[in-house]
Amino acid sequence: MTWRIGTVISTGKAWRGALELEVTLNRPLPGRAVEGTAAGGADGAVAPVTVRALAYTDLVGEPVPGDALLLNVSALARGLGTGGYALVVGPAAGTTSLPPDPPVGPGHLVKARYTPLQTMVLGVDEQESPHHATLADADSLDGLPVVVADLHSALPAVVAGLRHAAAVSGTAPDTLKVAYVMTDGGALPAAFSRTIAALRETGWLTTCVTVGQAYGGDLEAVTVHTGLLAARHVAGCDVAIVTQGPGNLGTGTRWGYSGVAAGEAVNAAAALGGRPVASLRVSGADPRDRHLGISHHSLTAYGRVALAPADIPVPAPTADVENLPAWGADLTHRIHEQARSLVPPAETSRNAARHTLVDIPADTTLLDTLRTSPAGLRTMGRSLDRDPASFVAAAVAGLHAHHLTTTDTPAARNPAQPA
Please, where are the H alpha helices in 96-201? Predict the structure, then answer.
């Protein structure tokens, strides 16, 4: 662990549960000491180092200029992680006041367990919860469509697809109730995500349910299963979206990435009588071949980890979409060939799941809806214009999920899929 003490210079952007700060460190980050002339100092003195820091206000209060703070700079020092922040742990000096104690109340679920910043929350289904009776014997999602995705950046695109389909069908998009079930493969605090904050503030999301070690949602649950049941029976949502928070973890190996949990989420949705929709992680601009077209993350999670069948929406772009930069006919062909590998003949498959490929048309009106997202669309540093296939692939999963809300029968089998 790499620690620093920082003095707050100014406060910056704030959103639900989080506050950006500008802080001066007491000494440079490891390996980054640059000698210069410090203000008012002699030649050769080390100039002050200023960095961005992030305070989770529910945990550490709201720092103000002049406060001395203890900072965790481990990931920042290595240049790792989404956001590039030093993280505020707490006050570093007696002159900086501690945040007030939280009000005494119900709840005994501990998240981020046995870390110095473990936090206690009220579980949606625990005995002290007003929803305990509702969930005590809940065992079915009653056909709830559950969109599963690898990356957090897919979340606003899936919601955009849902809203686009609603509008096309003549339904007011704001009447659609959408739950985000946040797993613990990435960031643990929901407050880290400006995407969640923007989607909640604008009504694009109805509720956020944090599960596992993740915390800070509107509802807290222990597992993906209880999180999905809460989305259905407590929040009354029409669709649930399951994906990790920001900060995907990967090692460049077949199994060493946090998105493996996408396959497990398919299993959870199916076990509870939901209708799993497996959103493909796609890119036409990623320089790494293993992520070009359909990422190996999706191929492994849905092809090897998912043991229950899911619908897999595959984007079928119109000519004007396919002609966009970073797309092209070759990418479309690659995506469809890779998708077919997810539905091998039964006699050659190691996986009992028999997924259904569903071609979903994608035209420029879908892109127009994506551009209205209140949350910025960026994946691995790339925007909608730089990597349209990434966001369109997520959006068509939303289109298909909306279709499932209007029908009691599964989607027609793709003709390309083996019978």
Answer: 132-136, 154-168, 194-201
Contacts of 107 (CB under 8 A, 6+ apart): 120, 121, 122, 123, 126, 128, 220
Place of tokens 């030649």: 43
pLDDT digits (tens, 9 = 90+) for 332-362: 999 999 999 999 776 555 655 689 999 999 9
User: What's the pLDDT tens digit per position in 247-260?
Assistant: 988 888 889 999 99
Domain range annotation of the chain: 3-91, 132-405
* Beta-carbon count within 10 A of 210 CB: 27
C-beta of residue 232 within 8 angstroms of C-beta of residue 219: no
CATH of 3-91, one of 2.30.29, 2.40.50, 2.60.40, 1.10.10: 2.40.50
pTM of the complete model beyond 0.85: yes
The token pair that represents 41 in the structure block? 């100092």
Instruction: State the Cα torsion 193-196-200-204 to the nearest 10°.
Output: 150
355 is written with which tokens? 């997924």
Tokens of 380: 């691995």
- List the beta strands (DSSP E) in 227-380: 239-244, 275-278, 282-283, 293-294, 311-317, 356-362, 378-379
